Amino acid sequence: MNPKEYKYTREHEWISLESPNRGTAGITDYAQSQLGDIVFLELPTPGTRVEQFQKMGEIEAVKAVTDIFTPASGVILETNQDAANEPKIVNEDPYGAGWLVKLELSYPSELDAMMDSQAYDEMVNVGG
Amino acid sequence: MKHTPLYETHLRLGARMVEFGGWEMPISYPSGIFAEHLATRKSGGLFDISHMGRFWIGGRDSLPFLQCVLTNNAAALVPGQAQYTMIPNESGGAIDDAYLYRVGEKEYILVVNAANAEKDWLWLQKFQPNFPGLVLEDHTGKMAMLALQGPRTKAALEAVLGDIRSLIGPTRNNLATTEIFGTRIYLSRTGYTGEPVGFELFLPADIAVRLWDELLAAGSGKGVVPVGLGARDTLRLEAGLPLYGHELGKDTDGKEIPALALPVASVAISFGGIKGEFVGREALRQQFQEIILRQEGRLEIPEEKWLVPRTIFPVLVCGDSVARAGCPVYVREKLAGQVTSGTVVPYWRVEGVGIRARPGTETDKRVICLAYLDADLREGQKVQVLVRDKVAEATIVRSHIGSEAAPYARPLFPEESALAISG
Asked: Do B322 and A63 touch (CB under 8 A)?
């Protein structure tokens, strides 16, 4: 059920490409299921420059808080205000309406080294 | 890991399972912690609490034993009553907090925290040689325990047990013995959610699945849902109820929290003549005396020698930074203590006022905590909580929920709780 065309990180984020240098990122279904009810999102301000695998925000669930890492380097173009206002959207539709940020990619080739859905499925299923 | 008799049932219901106190327990079912919390406040929740320790205490020495090892006056219970109590140590701290149910003339059940059950058991056994007529047995395995909490749970319970009016008194801490499926169970009006209407049931392990299924079937049309440990924690926190390891035991600096730092301890500790001598009595009495003198403004010893320098307070945090256990709390830039439990809880926006208040259809959420703060602080005090390098404004409140509009527990906010105290 992890979309085939997306790329994944070991920290359970995904990224999909809309054009060669523009992407949308969020957290995976596995991540949301492990977190449980998400109650608050802290997302970077548009214009922020981010580097791959660095912290870009926080997700607060009822029982825990966790960092969100950016799956790729670039500049934040937009954050999902609907999700910020109603974070349960991320629980309900992590790959769709529950996206977190849109970014302009500095190095689209970074994605080549990331896990595809099959590799991510395997990682999650063996408990990585 | 240990499993309750309802383990398979939880899996069948799709629960997310976690380890807690050596048990594999549901943290939440697929609807999630928020939905379970909200359902309990508006309709009802069914909880498997079979992981809690259950000690059977009987024999001619049962009462003298309980008077020695617990803080409350067990002689105040008649058969068919329950009370909150503590297992004290010699130094005025709590080994655990507990609930004592008098189920017969000489028979009691003591319910303790799952995470402490082994420690409590070893501690209690040490006193057994002093009480030759004591029967002390661990019934955690052979007895299951369910909680049914919330405004519509009485109807759900009666659909299974029949009319309970003649069986059990209407107020909290009543207890009754009854029968279902040809076997004896105990039913009490107790719980850990702050709900004005709530029950706990003690039953033989072998009927646990059947009774759970029947209660759930009877309750589901009334909005009663299964509730896991996640919402059990958010509900108890909202009700201001302590959890050992947070509000009792050691504080975040590793220092023992004096039992009297917990306001609810005042109903759990007895210094009366009938109670007599018990473990830790002198240390607790000194704490009690200090608090009374301080309240009367007559405490003359310097602050650094106070036995109870801090007290547990409910605190409401503004904004959406979720304060967690260990977050420091400041008053005018001076450290005043720490958060002991913190979370975000959902609530139903209230429709109607006063005793007509009831949950509406809109929900919201708020950040609440319990904090261990300087004892001279008062309700209404503005404080600052440091949440991961960010300062969150917060207020000490009297209570996070009120139950004057029973059968509903409704959320309270500072302005209201100030009014409630002056009125």
From this structure: no
